């Protein structure tokens, strides 16, 4: 089954029943009957973006503090084995919760899709300019999860950013791009070149069961 897309004004996270219709933002949802198909479509969609948005990072929070110092030590050691120069894994001293920011390969086809599906606790961010990871961590470290539209407004406080989240379920896969509406002409151009069908939220059930 070919992927389809939904284009909505505002911030409309796929996992939340109520978004917002703020005209300063746009949400593009790429939908397929399986995650593999949705991921492939996202790679095709995001690859042209990397010509202008040449930095790609992934932020993730633990949700809760570690139970003991041993868990904390082991996690920090495991992180240091895989981290690139500049990656951050640090504790918010007020909440006791660790979060991390890691740099991703700028070729979407080289990213492991299974690393990207913790949508409640992670976000992928693409930016036009080199990201100051320290500033970005400071900006996001107070988020305990990503659960409402205000969280996205915080994530997108830098207007040159596009955020992505990914959903892998038994019956479908989805990838969402949420960003400032000033980027819509570029996103529309890419979608037109991909020649994928547009549907509305009302068509989702029929598409998934076709």
Task: Please characterize this protein's 3D structure.
The protein is an alpha+beta fold and 210 residues long. It has one domain (4-208). The chain has six helices and nine strands, in the order E-E-H-E-H-E-E-E-H-H-E-E-H-E-H. The chain has a nine-stranded mixed sheet. The model has no long low-confidence stretch (mean pLDDT 94).
| Proportion of helical residues | 25-40%
Strand order of the largest sheet: 4-5-3-6-7-8-2-1-9
Distance between termini?
Answer: 9 Å
Uncertain regions spanning at least 5 consecutive residues? none
The overall average pLDDT, rounded, is 94
Number of domains: 1
Order of helices and strands: EEHEHEEEHHEEHEH
Largest sheet, strands/sense/barrel = 9 strands, mixed
Strand content: 25-35%
Number of helices: 6
- Oligomeric organization of the protein chains: single chain
- Molecular shape: globular
Number of strands: 9
- Cα Rg: 17 Å
Which class best fits the helix and strand makeup? Answer: alpha+beta
Question: How do the strands and helices of this protein lay out in sequence?
Answer:
Elements: E1 4-9, E2 25-32, H1 35-46, E3 55-61, H2 69-82, E4 88-91, E5 98-103, E6 122-127, H3 133-140, H4 149-155, E7 161-168, E8 173-180, H5 184-194, E9 197-198, H6 204-208
Parallel strand pairs: 1-9
Antiparallel strand pairs: 1-2, 2-8, 3-5, 3-6, 4-5, 6-7, 7-8
Quick recap:
The protein is an alpha+beta fold. It contains 6 helices and 9 strands.
List keywords for this structure.
210 residues; alpha+beta; 9-stranded mixed β-sheet; 6 helices; 27% helix; globular
């Amino acid at each position: 089954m070919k992927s389809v897309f939904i284009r909505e004004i505002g911030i409309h996270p796929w996992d939340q029943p109520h978004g917002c219709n703020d005209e300063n933002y746009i949400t593009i949802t790429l939908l397929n009957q399986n995650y593999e198909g949705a991921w492939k479509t996202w790679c095709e969609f995001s690859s042209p973006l990397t010509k202008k948005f040449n930095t790609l990072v992934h932020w993730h929070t633990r949700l809760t503090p570690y139970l003991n110092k041993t868990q904390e030590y082991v996690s920090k050691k495991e992180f240091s084995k895989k981290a690139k120069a500049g990656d951050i894994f640090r504790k918010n001293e007020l909440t006791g919760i660790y979060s991390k920011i890691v740099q991703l390969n700028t070729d979407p086809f080289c990213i492991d899709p299974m690393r990207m599906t913790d949508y409640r606790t992670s976000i992928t961010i693409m930016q036009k300019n080199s990201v100051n990871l320290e500033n970005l961590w400071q900006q996001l470290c107070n988020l305990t999860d990503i659960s409402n539209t205000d969280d996205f407004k915080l994530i997108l406080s830098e207007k040159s950013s596009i955020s992505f989240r990914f959903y892998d379920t038994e019956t479908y896969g989805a990838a969402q791009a949420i960003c400032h509406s000033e980027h819509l002409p570029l996103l529309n151009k890419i979608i037109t070149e991909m020649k994928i069908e547009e549907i509305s939220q009302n068509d989702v059930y029929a598409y998934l069961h076709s």
